[in-house]
Amino acid sequence: METKEIVLPKHRFLINADICPDFAPQMIDPYYWINQKKIFSSSRGRGTAYFIDAGQDRKWVLRHYLRGGFIARFMKDGYFYPGRNRCRPYMEFRLLSDLHEKGLPVPEPVVAHVNLNFYPVAHYDIIMKYIENSRDLVSVLKERSLTEGELEGIGEILVKLREHNVYHHDLNIHNIMLDDKGKLWVIDFDKGEIAPGHFDEMLDRLHRSFTKEKSIFKDELNWDESSFDRIIRSCGK
Description:
Structural class: alpha+beta
Number of domains: 2
Mean pLDDT: 94
Low-confidence stretches: none
Shape: globular
Order of helices and strands: EEHEEEEHEEEHHEEEEHH
Number of strands: 13
Distance between the termini: 35 Å
């Protein structure tokens, strides 16, 4: 992957030049795409993710970084800027780039953006490739149970993360996607890092996520503990 950086007085951009050789700074603004009627969908979690048809068979997801937890009451989307080598969008971009090149099922990064208009507080954005015809496991489980192959596939992904010492800080079933070809993907590597020794922590977090969603949706969610046991066995645990 060829990357390049654009440094402006108040903005920094890290760009995947293979995917976006025609990058212009306005591309990081959702209103640029809204005005061109290029937004084909959106999703709301902690914030809004915009799904963009950028032309030339390119579909992207634009996400603005928002805070969670107690501090979000006072600072919704601002972060102390630690320098571009340690800021969250650059770190996520580089981690995704590395994992993608190693063949892990993660979205390929397109652009990372740092807005320094309120330095030393920064605001962040990232654009990634859109995973065609995919949905998270919660959506799948509302319709049907996961197959044996899909459960084994989740275990295989966990093993790959362990083999590459990847620490996903928030591995939950909203961040595991299944496309219409049966391929599983992992998304949202914000705060992710290469840090060995976190496999059991990620496994526990994923288990809590299944349990939480089951408690919310009850019989609407086609899930039981025996399914997680199958995932664990696929991990060699």
